[in-house]
Amino acid sequence: MELLRDGPQAALSVSTAVTTSSSSSWKRPVLPEASQAPPDVMLHVGGCVFALHEEVLRLRWPLYHQLLQTTLFYCAPGNVSSDVGDILTVSEMQQLPVETLALVLCSDRLCIPEGERTLLRCLNKMVFGLDVYNVGADAQLPRPYFGRVDDVTRLYRCVRWCFVPLDDIIPTLRWTPRTLKLYEIIVESLRDPNRSHKRRRPFGWRKFRDAYMTNETNLSEFEIEAGDLNLAPSGAASLTMLNSVLR
């Protein structure tokens, strides 16, 4: 398991304002210089010595990503509740550099129980806090968020929104400040035919639960619902007034 723990760590810091991202952000991976690279791995087989440095570098990260695709959302024991499972998954997600996390979440081979709903739920808990689904109707709207704007929007672009029920999309849109432009991200995804394909069945999965049988949300439904609730960009002022009343 040393391979899984190798590499830089990533952390989130709390945003101090709703409409602006925090000064801190996910840490960027720092790659070693060529002079700092470890020496070749010497493998002794049958009296012959092989230098594996180049091969290890070539295979290391693809294998690392493949392991993350199959284990990231299955890091919790099978007998724990979904809330505990989400906490463990979010904790693992926070340990990854944002580039690595985005690459894994975009993969067609990503294994997610219950599909995109689980992915969106874990992203919301990582961005808005683990208690985001327990807040009441009078909670602050929009909510403070964690991380830089570019990092947060990059992760939300990994969601295949057409497979997320509208009832899960609308609360996320309520929590999200206009700075993150989540409305535009969702519309862009729903318009893109390349993001309407279900994730492929992972290799070796015989008991695969297909969470992508039908498209849950289309563009027209989303635009109508968001417009009626004043969650579209043109209704941002109304949402701000609602926030003032709730406060």
Write the layout of secondary structure elements.
Blueprint: H1 2-5, E1 42-45, E2 48-51, H2 53-71, H3 82-94, H4 98-105, H5 116-128, H6 149-156, H7 166-175, H8 182-191, H9 219-228, H10 236-246
Antiparallel strand pairs: 1-2
Rounded average pLDDT: 74
Largest sheet: 2 strands, antiparallel
State which percent range the strand residues make up: under 5%
Task: Give the overall shape, derived from the CA principal axes.
Answer: globular
Number of separate strands: 2
Helix content: 40-55%
- Count up the helices: 10
| Topology order in helix (H) and strand (E) letters | HEEHHHHHHHHH
Q: What is the rounded Rg?
A: 21 Å
End-to-end Cα distance: 48 Å
Walk me through the structure:
It comes from Phytophthora aleatoria. This is BTB domain-containing protein. The structure is a single chain. 43% of the residues lie in helices and 3% in strands. With 247 residues, the chain is mostly helical. A two-stranded antiparallel sheet has the order 1-2. Strand 1 (42-45) and strand 2 form a beta hairpin. Helix 3 packs across helix 5. It is globular, with a radius of gyration of 21 Å.
